[in-house]
Write a structure and sequence with these properties.
The chain is α/β, with parallel strands linked by helices. It is 43% helix and 17% strand. The chain is built from 16 helices and 11 strands. The chain has helices spanning 3-13, 45-50, 54-62, 72-82, 98-112, 115-126, 130-134, 155-169, 187-196, 207-220, 259-269, 295-302, 312-321, 333-348, 351-357, 360-379; strands spanning 19-22, 28-30, 36-40, 66-69, 177-181, 199-204, 226-230, 242-248, 270-283, 325-331, 382-390. The strands form 2 sheets. It has a 7-stranded mixed beta sheet. Strands 2-1-3-4 form a 4-stranded mixed beta sheet, with helices on one face. α14 (333-348) runs antiparallel to α16 (360-379). The chain starts with a helix and ends in a 27-residue tail after the last strand.
Length: 417
């Protein structure tokens, strides 16, 4: 046994989940009765497994250099133990030239988030196949964190609870003009129109989602009350501001360098006194651009090109600098872990059909993406926040209480009545 194989065997034996590795020639390392068996088709993944580079191991799986037997839940339990260092601490506090890294990061981000590149990146992910996503999403095709208001809720009911939670937080009222930036397959648009009577307008860069939602509008008889455009948020006209705005699972695609412009644009699109719901994935630490151990590189390559993680503190800072006042923030991190495990389980039950709709490499990437993301939310390496903000109208005499300067009552009771 060479030193690399010895190192690997020591790591495998120390794991809490029984695991074995089968080398290309048939030699077995690890537990005699494993829960998970990794079968190497080439020797190169040995280095990645021994070094805890789980993102590179995932890439090896997608590209066929290894296979595994066992459940993805057990595989992720092993992955979490293989990682040596905290993947959220890639930038030590007070590191030399941190200021220069921030400048170059912002410049890189601006360069990679033009209107053209954002459209390409969104279509790379969301236009894989509507039928593929339908295999594992809920009937409304809500592709964002569900809200398990009660522990017994199914995924479908938890997604409905999330849509209603957002509408309640925004205090949507009949006849209001409501904008959904990055409207996905239309779940929030339709819910807000059908249950709260708003006039809803959505935008997306996904051609598939655009076609799907316009079909929903026609079939639901909501033409004239709900509209959906294939348009970049930067191109929206500002001559008729909206009463309320939501952005769900969208700002992760905006990028560090474009975030000030994003919130400036939203402020101009929002009426004075109106409310914004900004819901999305945030970094688990203030000191990392992406997840370490190769996980961020895997997501960039196979799932979300151009996606960037920002800590909630940074998002709130930029939001405030754009004269949008944060009035409420709610962390739904474990809710997203449960959502992702539900998606993962649904996909695992439909692997054959998924391969017919997309292809082997896509299915492999999404198996690890869904289960791996669930594991990362459980570990606290990434998070999910709903950030409610207002555009103050400048008049302390207006509002539900003196000084409010917006519709927000500065009391959370209204959200749960």
């Amino acid at each position: 046994m060479n030193p690399l194989e010895r190192t690997l065997e020591q790591r495998v034996e120390a794991l809490g989940v029984p695991m074995a590795v089968v080398l290309p020639g048939g030699q077995r390392l690890g537990h005699p009765q494993p829960t998970v068996t990794i079968r190497l088709n080439e020797l190169s993944p040995l280095v990645h497994i021994a070094g805890g580079q789980v993102g590179r191991v995932a890439q090896d799986y997608v590209e066929g250099r290894l296979d595994f037997d066992g459940t993805v839940r057990d595989l992720m339990a092993i992955a979490a133990q293989l990682i040596d260092d905290d993947p959220t601490q890639s930038e030590p506090t007070g590191a030399p030239l941190a200021w220069w890294r921030n400048i170059t990061r912002a410049a890189r981000s601006r360069a990679r988030h033009s209107t053209e590149s954002d459209a390409q990146q969104v279509q790379f992910h969301y236009d894989v196949s509507d039928d593929f996503y339908a295999l594992w999403l809920d009937p409304l095709k809500v592709y964002s964190c569900a809200y398990f208001r009660e522990g017994s809720l199914s995924l479908a009911k938890a997604q409905e609870a999330k849509l209603d939670h957002i509408c309640r937080k925004l205090m949507l009222r009949e006849g209001e003009r409501f904008l959904d930036i990055g409207a996905g397959w239309g779940g929030l648009l339709m819910w807000a129109a059908q249950h709260y009577g708003v006039r809803a307008h959505g935008i997306t860069l996904s051609k598939n989602q655009h076609a799907h939602v316009n079909g929903l509008i026609e079939r639901s008889g909501l033409r004239g009350r709900v509209t959906m455009e294939l348009r970049d948020y930067r191109e929206l006209p500002e001559d008729a501001p909206f009463d309320k705005i939501a952005s769900v699972g969208m700002f992760e695609h905006v990028g560090h360098g474009q975030l000030p412009g994003y919130f400036d644009k939203i402020r101009r699109l929002l009426k004075p006194g109106g409310l914004l719901m900004n819901h999305g994935i945030t970094a688990g630490s203030t000191r990392n651009e992406q997840l370490g151990a190769g996980m961020g590189d895997f997501i960039e390559r196979y799932i979300f090109p151009g996606g960037e993680l920002l800590h909630v503190s940074h998002v709130l800072k930029v939001m405030s600098e754009s004269q949008l006042e944060p009035v409420d923030a709610e962390n739904l991190r474990p809710h997203y872990a449960r959502t992702l495990w539900a998606w993962s389980a649904a996909l695992e039950h439909q692997l054959g059909r998924a391969r017919e709709l997309t292809g082997e490499s896509v299915v492999r990437a999404y198996r690890l993406y869904l289960a791996g993301s669930a594991m990362c939310f459980e570990q606290g390496w990434i998070s999910l926040f709903q950030m409610l903000a207002a555009r103050p109208d400048g008049n302390p005499a207006r509002g539900p209480m003196r000084g409010a300067q917006s519709e927000f009552p500065f009391n959370r009771e209204y959200m749960y009545r």
